[in-house]
Specification:
- This protein is 62% helix and 2% strand.
- The chain contains 25 helices and 5 strands.
- A hairpin with a 2-residue loop joins strand 1 and strand 2.
- It has a domain of 159 residues: Oligopeptidase f, N-terminal domain (Butyryl-CoA Dehydrogenase, subunit A, domain 3).
- The strands form 2 sheets. A 3-stranded mixed sheet has the order 3-5-4, with helices on both faces. The protein has a two-stranded antiparallel ribbon with strand order 1-2.
- By secondary structure, the protein is an all-alpha fold.
Length: 599
Amino acid sequence: MINQNNKIPHRKDIPEADKWDLSTLFKTNSDWEKALLQISKDANDFESFRGKLGESAENLLAALKFLEKAQQNEELVGSYAFLLTAGDAGDSSNQEKFDRYMMISTEANAKSSWFSPELQSIPQTVLEKWIERNDFENYKIFLQKEIRNKPYILSEKEERLMALHTEPNSTAHKAFSMLTNVDLDYGCVNGEPLTQTTWSSFMENSDRQIRKDAYMQFYNTFDKHKNTIAALYAGSVNIDICKAKARGFKSSIEKALFLDKVPISVYDSLVSTVRSNFEPLHRYYKIRRKLLKLDSPDELRHYDVYVPLVSDVQKTTPFDEAIEILREALAPLGTEYTDTLCTGLKTGWVDRYENKGKRSGAFSAGAYTGYPYILMNYKQDVLRDVFTLAHEGGHSMHSLYSAKSNPFLQYNYTIFEAEVASTFNEELLFRYYLKNETNPKIKNYLVANRAADIIATLYRQTMFAEYERKTHELVESGNPLSVDVLRGEYKKLLTDYFGTEMVFEETSDLECLRIPHFYNAFYVYKYATGISAALALAEQVTNGGKIEKENYFNFLCSGGSRYPIESLKAAGVDMTNTEPVQAAINIFSSLVDELEALV
C-alpha cells in the first residue's frame, strides 16, 4: 500500500491487522532465541547415536525420533527468521537473526553430517526388513528415499564439508536479493516510485510513454550493475555444478531432477513441445500489436508486452472482498476447504501490502506447525493480484493438508507438485469470473489476461528453463559465463519466443540478470509442468464427480509420501507424455482465437 503522498510506508506504519501473525511460530523473540540455541544442543546430543545406528532397529528408531524433533525445531527457527527478513530486509535486526540462524544451522548440520553415511552403511537387506515393522511407519518413506540416495552419499568427512558450505553457497543469492530489493534505487517515474514491486504496475500502464520511461529507467539501473550481477549468477551456476560433481552426478540437471525422480525426458519433452507450438504464441503477439493500434510490425516493443489488451477496464477489489470472491470461486472444492482458507486469509496468514525493505512479489511459506504464511504486495486496483492471492492460497492449503495428513519427515511435497495446487486455484477463479462477470469488456479483459497468464507460466518459464539448461551446459563444457555470453544466449531465446513481431531495446536482454528464481536452478520448468497438470485437473474436478474430487484431495494430502510423477498419475494426469502440455497449449490457442475476434 502506498500512502497519499505516493511514498512507500515503513513497516512500522503498516497496521498490525495487515501483517502476518508470526506468533504461531514463536510468541516472543525470547522464545525464538531459546529455540535457536536448541539447534546447537540437539546437534551435540545427536552425537550419542553415532556409531550405534546399525546395532539394532531400536537404536535407529530412537535416532529417527530425535532427528524428527530436532528438525521440527530447526524448521520453526528458520521459518521465523526468513519471514521477518522477507517482511523488512532493511531492518538490520531481522537480517541479523537470519544470519545467526544460517550460521548455527550450518554448523549443526555439519556436526550431524555423519548420519547419512552411517545410515547407508547398514546393509540394505537389514534396513528394508526393519522398516516393515509397524513402529517404523512414520519413517518408512523417509528411509526408502534415503536408500535411493545411497549412490550419491559421500563419506562422513566429505558430507561434513558439504554441510559446512551450505551457508557460504547462499551468498550469491543473498547478495543479489539485497542489491536488487534494497540497495538499488530505480528512482521515480511520473512522480511515483519505481521498485521491483511497482515494476509490473508501470508495465501495465495504458500510457505508452510512462511504460517506456519505466522500462528504460529500470533496465538502465541494471545496466550500471550488470557485471556485478552477472558475476553473482555465474557464481551460483558454478556452485550448482560443483555440488553435482562432488556427489557423482553426470550433470547439474541430473542432480536437480534426481530428488523428485523426474526423468530428464520430462524436461526435454516440455521444451520440445513448447518449441513446436510457437505458432499460437507468435499469432498472439501479432494480435497484440493490432489491438494496441501499432501500425507496423516494427513498432511492438518489449515494454508493450504486459499492458492489458482490453483498455479502460476499471475493477477495484479491496483485499477483504477478494477473500469472498475466492470463497465463491473455489466452491467446487467444498466448504471445509473454502472456510479454512478464507478464515486464514482474514486472521494472520497474510502480510498484505508493500512496505520499504519488503521482498517483492508473493510467496507462501511456513512450517509443519503454525500458519501457512503468505507474503503479498497487494494492490486493490490490480485485478491480477486477486489471482495471485488465489495462487498463494493454493500453496498454503496444499501445505495445510500435507501437514495434517503426514508425519513430519514425509510431509514436504515437491515444488513440481506445489505449482499444480496453486495454478489449479487460478483456473477455478478464471472460470468463476468468466461465468459471473456481466460487463463484456471485463470478460474480454479476463480472456486476454488468462492468455497472458498462460504465456507467463507455460511459454515464459519454458524459455527460462532453456536458458538455465544452456548456462549450466556452457560451464560444464568449460566455457565461462561473462555478461556478454549471458546476454547473447538470452537474446537468442527472446528472438525465438517473441518472433518477428517484437522489437527489443539494447537493454532488453538484461532481463536475464533480474530473475531471482535463477538462483534456485531448474526450478522454473515446474511452473510450466504445473499449469499443464493444473488445467487438466481443474477440468476433471469441475466437470467430474465425487471420484475426481476425492482424487484431487488425495493429491493435496499426499505430501511427500509419493514421488510427484506417481502422485499426479494417481490424481489423473500423466506428465511423462506430451498430452498435458499440448492440451494446455490448445487451451491457449483457443483463447488466442477469442482475442482474434476483437481485432
